[in-house]
Protein 1
Amino acid sequence: MLWLMTEFVLLAAVVVAAGVLMTNTADRIADATGLGKKLVGIVLLAGATSLPELAVGITSVRMGAADLTAGNLLGATLCNLLVLAGVDLVTRTPGGILSRQAAAHALSATGVIILKCVAVIGILINSTVMFGPMGLTSIVLIGVYFALLRLVYFDELATRQILAENEPQKRPPLGRNAAGFLAAAAVIFLTAPELARVADKLSDLTGLGRTFMGTVFVAAVTTLPEVTAAYTAVRLKAVELAIGNAFGSIAFNMLILGVLDAFTSGPMMAEISDVHVVTAVCGMIVLCATVLSLLYRAERRWPILEPDALLVALLILGSFGLVYMQSR
């Protein structure tokens, strides 16, 4: 047990170190390409920091642990939002991360809510309709994801055209930063399967059960790149990168949930326990609260804590407690 915990911590440390490198290089890539920090955060950084979820998902599906897979991907939503709220509370970012300054991300957040609604419907209806190697719900999830990506891209493109005159003339080198980004992403992708193996053993030894383990324990650790990315981005004063990464990672996790269907013999959604509907609905409630925080900011602020971030954090902790009670 002690050795497993030690191995778990060491693997997590590797993921964190790679996450720091990825965030720094992603920030420079955003400047080098002129794509903007929001788009790079939603697509590039989110995709890379979600590699643990992809690797863990493939490993879990091949082990026949559909509940661990669903718990990891759906639970990562709560972990990603907890990261945003936590960084907002700890760093006391001027204006707050969850504020009107970040209201442009409400579009992607709303799209994520739609993705989670599709996942909930797929779990509840237990559809066995297949199109090739994938179920109907998985195909819809993938289609909605790319439709959302297209919408965000054109929205950001319009914004970048308006702000084009304010772009810095001197841009950092793209090649070196892209190489560093890919190297860090490769480290995370190779480390994640071993992380899944250790987490699966710990789930048996702790007696918490695979459902709760996937929702909290594995989801928390595979969200470490997002934790590192958010904190590093705030230190770099790239708040858009942090928020884009959080919402982009949640959306990418829903894409992974659909893609993993191709690695199973039947429709994966039909094999997922209904207990994960609770996790998904809790995630949607917290997402709605986050969108409200992005769109509304009271003039009066608390001297010590950000009330919006505190509300989001409390909702997430309550969600974890509810999921645990449901899985017992």
Protein 2
Amino acid sequence: MKTSLIRTIPKLSLFIEELGAGVVAYSSNNEIRVNADYIQGFSSDVKKEITEILYHEVEHSWQWFGNGKALMGLIEGIADFARMKAGLSIYDIKDMFQVTTTYSKTQQYKVLARTMFSLSFLVILTFLTGNQAVEYTVTNNAATTPGGMKFANQIGIEYSKQTMSSATEFIWKTFRQASNADRKDVPKVSLYIDSMDGVAYASNNEIHFSANYIQQYTGNVKTEFTGVIYHEMAHVWQWNGNGQPTPGGLIEGIADFVRLKAGYAPSHWVKPGQGDRWDHGYDVTAYFLDYCEGLRSGFVAELNKKMKTGYSGNYFVELLGKTVDQLWSDYKAKYKTN
């Protein structure tokens, strides 16, 4: 086998974490995270189930993603195909020929995996998955600068595209957007490495990342880059109140909530409970939203869904039964911070 056909992965890490209800596992940037809550609640042979999950998620680590253009349903189907070929998923043969117009996410993956046995059905079932294809492009406009060269040497275009694709899938899961109808219509996301001040910003499905910041960053720049991309990709996909007055701190807080849940919260963030107000934004609001998520699983997803058509401070009352100020007071009291 030609080594050029194999992805370069020097290290693969597994984390067992509390990920909340509705999540089993996910892989991102050579890291696999399995939900401890799912393990606890699984009533059958948990060792066998974990083995099956790991075959699926490790496949994600090694498979190619069509340079950022492949359908998510196809990617997941190939992962379940590997799981099935390992002899870890046994299905009734009649299930291979059941076709319907609506599939749950799990059904999509299983159907597509079975169909890999029969290529004549592959194209049909790929369309049935209902997942939109998103194109990812990366342009290094600062290629001759120290920061642009550091980006090329330590991060790279291919890794950037993979990170954008992984972030999209994670955000869809976090926002519980199972179908195209739930999501923003974004056919293409472009990343530009620019000579500019600041860190990064997203606008009109474009992300602009500072080559100056990359050059000056003294820690693990690849990990920091990944965390910032998850934040900015959240801006691409999140709803923002449909033009109605919406706290900017909430918008930024949701983006950092995504970064937090993906496991890319940097050490320089504040600690949970710190901050002067709930809509301070960024890390302060992210930890507050995580507290609210603990009160109601899926809170952030439901809040984001409501923000598709507008914004009201009453959304917190509708979802959690308390005003946002009451929730903030409870949050501060929990951590005993002023």
Protein 3
Amino acid sequence: MSPAARRGRAGGGQEATEVTGGTPCSADPEIARLEAAADWLQTLSSTPLEDATLESWLEWYGRDPANQKAFDGIVEVWGAMAHVPPAVRAALRSPAVGTRVAPVSSARQSRTPLWAALAASLVVACTTLVWLGLRDPTVDHGEVLASPLGVNSTSQLPDGSVVELGGRTSARLSYTAAERRVEVLDGEVYLTVAKDAGRPFVVDAGALRVTAVGTAFNVRRSGSDVVVTVGEGAVEVVRSGSAARGCEPAGGCVHLTAGRQLRYREGAKALVVRSVDPAVTTSWRNGVLKFVDEPLSAVVSSVNRYSHRPIQIRDAALGGLSFTGTVHVERIDNWLNALGSAFPLRVVEAGEEGVLLVSRK
């Protein structure tokens, strides 16, 4: 669907908002070009990408260097590159796309300077019609960030905070004028939070809520199990349903500082905290998974986000075994081969089922 077919509705299906007074946005050709670029970004990011849509975008993008500059500027200003489909990202890096629609096969990458001033003029000038939440970082997007199996990705959020996603990780972004919120749906994230005392940064992960102002911390979620590790600064972690006054572990609240880690498992009566080396916990950012006294079930869950063959623990007792060691994401088979020597288990190749870990009889 082309952007023209989408006009009149906001991102997320909301109706356009009429604002009285002022001059129509389209009265200024540069503003109109930015509107078209934002419409294209919305179309490419939020709908299944069909060949016809990609071809239409490529034709518009390659028609005029000013179109390229406007589109690249919108993408950069909102840190949206991580959410643009791979085919579009490839096209943006193609040396031929700037002159004519061509196969998107080049590895050359070209980036334009930020159009911060022009984007600001867009916000000021558009006093007649605003239909895209993309143009206002205080709008609740409900946008989902996601990374594929085996691939880490990084996104810059509207406030300047940065979120790094581990392999096969998903998180929902929700920003309002009063609060910045990220919900970790599954996987592992590392967040570097921009300071804003008047606008707390909240991360929901299962039964836990983590609140920070300006800090850096890691959150890993697998089902209902959650691990929070602070690298810099401090955060407050509260378990859902906590009614305790003050912040006490027994009451479901913990104040975590740098080098401290909280582990939560469903049904736990209290939040458990221990001291750790944050560099070990966050080594996944460099392609290495390091674990210290972790349940084998948690280790396998993390490894599975990088393994192209699913690994299954067939005997529940094995999942509770404690594991300390390192897994290189590019050499998972080597780790599996060594696992049978270190634990009372057998590693069984099971075709389409992947790899099974079974107790040694």
Protein 4
Amino acid sequence: MLRLAAPHGQRARRAYLTPFLSMLALLGVAGCAGAAPLHPAYARSQVEPVTVSRVADDAIAIRYRVPPESLQYSPGVDYEKDGDLLRIFIVRCRIGNACEPMAKSTVPLDQRWSAEVRIPYHLEQVRLISVGEDTPIYP
């Protein structure tokens, strides 16, 4: 079998690029490892009224108004637990784009444009994080 050696310049380029490509791959994996920070999408006045009720020993239901928009909608909420706090972020998605909130709405939109989500609850103070506000909503 006849093996042809790569020209000297090609071998040098490959040796030079290998660490660079390895670093890019490592940065890509590290960038995906952490969760994206949560951020508010709506002002509180856009989603009022917001009501919270206990539906089980370990769950609450949150109802909120979905603003009627032509290009975006709210499929549910994201939430984060931080000690004794449970922060709620109402998700806003562009129509036609993939969007996966942590808790999806469990009821279809009604004539009042009201959505309901259920999330785990373990006696934390629940706060609604909206644009420019951080408001306690339960208990």
